[in-house]
Amino acid sequence: MAVRIFPAAIFIDVYSFIPSNKTCFYILIKHILNSIFLFLALSVFGQDSTGIKPIPANPTIQATRTIPKAPVSDTIVPAAPTTQASDTARKNQVIAPAPSVSILLKRDSAAWYFHAKERFRFYPASDTLLDGIEVFDPIFQEGFYGHTGNLGAPHTALAYRSRFYEGFAVGYNQYDLYIRDIDSVRYYNTLKPFSRTHYAQTHQQQDAMVHAEFGHQVSPGLNLGLEYRRINHEGIYGFQKNRHTTFALTSHYRTRNNRYELLCAYAGNTIKTQNNGGLTSDTMWIDTFSRRVFNPQIFLTEARTINTHRHVSVSQYLNIDKFFSNKKDSTGFRKNLFTLSHHAAFRNDKYKYFDIAPAGDSLFYQNFQTNNVGIRHFLRVNTLRNEFYLEAQRQSKNKKGNIRPVGMLRVGLMHKVHFINQEPLNKTINNLFLKAKFEGIIANTFFVKGKGHLGLWDNAGDFLVDATLGVKIAKIGQLEAGFKNQLFSPSLLQQEMYISQIPIWQNSFNKTNETSLWGKLTIPRTHSAFAVRNFLLANLIYYDEEVSVRQSDQLTNLLQVEAQQDFNLKPFYIKNHIFWQIQNNNLLRLPALTGKHSFYFENYIFKKAMLFRVGFNLYWNSTYFAKGYHPLIGQFHLQEQQNIQAYPAADAFLSFKVRGFRAYFKCDNVSDYITQTPYYLVPLYPMREAIFRVGISWEYDN
Q: Is the peptide bond before 19 cis (omega within 30 degrees of 0)?
C-alpha cells in the first residue's frame, strides 16, 4: 500500500512570514491559509492509495437508481443539477420537480448520496456552482425564517409550513435547522473519494463556521460517509454565544449478488447556547464612529441551554424476488422487484436549561420563578424504534436498455417506545403505526404519489393522509395539486411543564387537526413558479402573551400565495421569491408579505478560468407583531409590546470559483450603514450590525 505524506513543512514556511501581532487582518489571513492547508490534507488523505480503480458492485442495480430533478416538497424550490457536467447550468432555474429520472452511473460519475428509507433515490453530492455559496446561515438557506440575532440562535418560521407528526413529540423545535437527524444522514455511493469543506469567519476569531463532508468506496460493495459541522459565534450584545457541533458517520454494504444490504449510521448533535433574554431597551444602539453597540442592557447573564442528541440506526434490505413469479429476461432485467426491510434506531435526547442566578431575574421569569437559588429544567428521552416494510417496485426498460421505475408501493408497521425522565417523573409511551407509501407514473405524463399512517396504541387515532397528483403540460411545464390531512397529539411540553421539579402546568388538550389544499405551476421556459395553499387548523395549540400554553376553540385559516420569478439577462441575473399570507385570527403571527431577492453580475474572467459574481441579496418582510422568544421553555409566544418594522436587509457579496475551489467576501446587513437603526426578526433580539465575512469552499473528487 502506498503511503502519502503531507508536506507539513509548508505550514512552518508560510506562518514564519506572518507577524505575531494579533490584528484582525493577519488573524484573517492565518485562518484562510490554515483552512486551505487543512482542505488539502483532507483531500490527499482521502485519495485511494491502492492504485486500483473500484468498480460498482452491480452495474444493473446502479442503473435502476433514480434521481429526482428537484426535491418534491410543499414549497417552490430551485432545481438541482442532474450531472456534474452542468457546472455552468443554473440552479436558479425553476424546473418542475419530476417524480424521478433514470440515470446510468458510469465509472467516472460524480458522488451521489441517498437516505436509508429511500435508497433508490439518489441526489448529487457534488456542487461547484456559485449559487448561494455566500448564504451560510441555515435560516436563510432553508427558506423564510427568523432567529434571535446570531448564527446558531433559536429560529422560527416566517412562512407557515406544515410539519410532519408521527406520535410522541417533545416539543422543542427551535434548533431544528442545525441538527442532523438520523433519518437525514447521507449514505454515499461513489466510485472515487469525494470530499468537500466549507469555512466561514468574521473579523473575530471566535465567530466561525466549518462544514466538512467525505465519501469513499472502501471496497466494491462498501461505502463510508462522514459529515462534520461546527458553529461557533460569540454575538455582540452580551451573553449570546452559540456553539453547535454535528458529527455523522455512515456505512453502506451490499453483497455481490445484491440480495442483501446493510446500512449503519451514527449522528451526534450538541447544542450549547447562552441566553441573554434579549435587550431591555432598543434606545441604546450603535456608536456612529465605531459601528459597535454602546452599553447594551440584557435581561439574563447566567442562563444556558445545553441539548444533546445521540442517534444510532441499522437498516437492512433483503431481496425476495425469487419467492414471486417474476422471471428475468435475457439481460437479467425484472419488471417487478420485491424487498423486505427492517429499520432499527436508538435515540438518546437530553434537554437542559439552567440559570444559577435567578433571584435578580425575577422580573423576566415571573410565574416561572420557582426557586430563588437556581432554575433548572431537565428532560431526557430514550427512544427505541423498529420498522418493518414490504416494498414492491415496478420498472420498465426502453429500446436503448435504459431502466426507470414506474411505480412503487410500500406497506409496513412501525413501533416506537419512549422512556421519559422529566424531573421529577418517569414514564413510558408506546407508539404503533400502520404505514403506507406509493408513487406511480402514468403514460409518461401523469404522476401520483401519496403516504399515510394510522396510530393504534398510546397514540390511537392519530392519522395522516397526504396525496399529490401532477401532470406535465407540453411546452409549458408542470401542474401539481395536493391534499393533506393529519390528526396529531399535543407535544409533551404542551401537556406538562416542570421547572425545578415544580409543576407549572398540566393540560389535557385535544388533538389538533390540520387540513391543507394546494396547487403549484412551474414554467421552466420563463423561469417562473406559482403556488397557492390553504391551511385549516382545528384545536390549534399556541403560547399566549403570558407565555402560557393555550388551545384555541376556533378554526384557524391561513391562505398562502407564493411566487418565484427569475430573470436571466446575461451577464445580469435577478431572482425573486415572495410569500403573501392572510390569517383569520392572527394566532400564527406571520408577516403578510415576505420576500427574498438576489441581484448579481456573473461572467468568466482570466480567459474563462474563473467564474466571477458580484451582487447583493435582499431580505424583507412587512410590519407585524412577531412572536417573542422565551428561552426557559424554548418556545415562541404571542406578544403585543414590540411591532417588528419593515426593514430591507441587504447583504453585499463578491464570489468566484476555479474548478472545485470557491470563495466569497461578504458584508452582512450593509443596509445598516444607511439606516443606522435596529433590525429585528424577533422582538428584543436585534440582528447584527454590518459585519464583514469571508468564506472558502473546496470540493475534491478523485
A: no
pLDDT of residue 363: 80
Q: Long-range contacts for 573-580 (Cβ within 8 Å, ≥24 apart)?
A: 573/90, 573/92, 573/598, 573/599, 573/600, 573/601, 573/602, 573/615, 574/598, 574/599, 575/92, 575/599, 577/76, 579/144, 579/158, 579/159
Contact status, residue 157 vs residue 139, Cβ threshold 8 Å:
no
Q: What band does 282 get if pLDDT is binned at 50, 70 and 90?
A: low
The SS3 of residue 226 is: strand
What share of the chain in percent tops pLDDT 90?
A: 56
Write the DSSP symbol of residue 585: S
- Output the average pLDDT for the chain: 81
Predicted confidence (pLDDT) at residue 71 exceeds the cutoff of 60: no
Please give the model's pTM, rounded to 2 decimal places.
Answer: 0.82
Which pLDDT belongs to residue 360?
A: 67
CA distance 473 to 492: 46
Task: For residue 118, count CB atoms less than 10 angstroms from its CB and return exposed for 0-12, middle for 13-18, buried for 19 or more.
Answer: middle
C-alpha cell, 547: 407565555
Burial (CB count within 10 angstroms: exposed 0-12, middle 13-18, buried 19+), residue 298: middle
Query: In angstroms, what CA-CA distances link 496 with 168, 189, 540?
Result: 13, 44, 17
Give me the amino acid identity at 128: T
Residue holding cell 435567578?
358
Is 31's pLDDT higher than 60?
no
Task: Give strand pairing partners of 626.
Answer: none
Q: Residue 294 and residue 301: Cα distance in Å, rounded? A: 17
